[in-house]
Amino acid sequence: MFLFSKGASGRHVSFPIQQKSRQSQINTRGYAAGKPSKPKSVIQPFPGEFSGPKMVTTVPGPKSQELLKQLDQYQDARTQHFFVDYAKSKGNYAVDADGNVLLDILCSISSHSIGYNNPRLLEAAKSEEWVTALVNRPATGIQPSSTWPALLQKTLMSATPPGLKQIFTAMCGTCANECAYKAVFMSYQHRKRGGKPFSADELQSCMKNQPPGSPELSILSFQGGFHGRLFGSLSTTRSKPIHKIDVPAFDWPVAPFPHIKYPLEQFAKENRNEEDRCLQEVEKIIKTNRMPVAGMIIEPIQGEGGDNAASAYFYKTLRNIAKQNGVFFIVDEVQTGVGATGKFWAHEHWELQDPPDAVTFSKKMQAAGFYHNLDLRPSEGYRNFNTWLGDPIRALQAGVVVKEIKEQNLLKNVQVTGAYLKDSLFDLQRRYPNLVKNVRGQGTFLAFDLPDGAQQGKLLSSLRQKGVEATGSGATSIRFRPMLIFTPDHADIFLNILEDSLKGMK
Amino acid sequence: MFLFSKGASGRHVSFPIQQKSRQSQINTRGYAAGKPSKPKSVIQPFPGEFSGPKMVTTVPGPKSQELLKQLDQYQDARTQHFFVDYAKSKGNYAVDADGNVLLDILCSISSHSIGYNNPRLLEAAKSEEWVTALVNRPATGIQPSSTWPALLQKTLMSATPPGLKQIFTAMCGTCANECAYKAVFMSYQHRKRGGKPFSADELQSCMKNQPPGSPELSILSFQGGFHGRLFGSLSTTRSKPIHKIDVPAFDWPVAPFPHIKYPLEQFAKENRNEEDRCLQEVEKIIKTNRMPVAGMIIEPIQGEGGDNAASAYFYKTLRNIAKQNGVFFIVDEVQTGVGATGKFWAHEHWELQDPPDAVTFSKKMQAAGFYHNLDLRPSEGYRNFNTWLGDPIRALQAGVVVKEIKEQNLLKNVQVTGAYLKDSLFDLQRRYPNLVKNVRGQGTFLAFDLPDGAQQGKLLSSLRQKGVEATGSGATSIRFRPMLIFTPDHADIFLNILEDSLKGMK
Question: Are A37 and A27 in contact (CB under 8 A)?
Answer without folding.
Answer: yes
